[in-house]
Amino acid sequence: MSEIGNRVFMNVNRPAPELVEKFRGIPSSNINDEMNRLFCMHSYMRLLNPESANPSMVGTAITVKAPIGDNLFFHQALDMAQPGDIIVVDGATGNNRSLAGEIMIRFAQKKGLAGIVVDGCLRDLDGIQNLTMPVYAAGVTPQGPWKFGPGEVNVPIACGGQVVFPGDILVGDRDGIVVVRRQDAAKVVEIAISKKASEDKTFELMESDLPAYEKRHIATTAKRFQGREPVYVDSGYADIYGC
Question: What's the confidence (pLDDT) of residue 93?
Fold first, then answer.
């Protein structure tokens, strides 16, 4: 048998911390919108500690490819991870065993990690919900993991329906998680900042001059309907169908 599937890649090409930090405070939705709405993880990847977690998870990916129900290589990644990293685990969507609990997650927070993202289950929810480091997972179960391997660290993985490469930037909030390629980050962050600024101006107009906003909204809706206009029916549905 070859070594493939049983490897730990020690080096990660991380983007500059200053670039990563520029994503902080930008909603995941704004970032994803500016990448043609193709890079958000599926909605089953949920924030487990929304009441206590930092409002914005921003960091670089350390990836783990694990067999269903086994966390040996998750431990390896935890030993290797640096402050500001996010451990991202492809647990093969297994939901019958947890891949980590409060001890591992608390250790990650103490090391200064920016977050944990697991496409699989975690446990010790009561303890996790008191931590400030954002923790995302597909589910929760008290059933513990095996520690036999094999697995891989810092390889491309699938997590929440997205491909994640080592060194990718992840941005998470209560809505979910968006994945940004390291090579695209400088371009994406600038247009995402502009997107947020535009939305902020929309909110300002809505608060300061609602009639003006209503007029703009009507015009925008009409423009979007061009070429596919609906039929506007003067009567009510019950008038026609009797129900």
Answer: 87
150 and 6 Cβ atoms separated by less than 8 Å:
yes
243 pLDDT above the threshold of 90: no
- AA letter at 156: P
- According to DSSP, residue 24 is labeled T
Helix H or strand E encompassing 139: strand 135-140
Q: Are 88 and 62 in contact (CB under 8 A)?
A: yes
CA distances from 102 to 10, 64, 127, 144, 175 (A): 26, 19, 6, 12, 23
3-state secondary structure of 179: strand
List phi, psi (to 5°) of 24: -65, 135
- Give per-residue pLDDT as tens, 61-100: 999 999 999 999 999 999 999 999 999 999 998 999 999 9
CA distance 154 to 159: 13
pTM of the complete model: 0.95
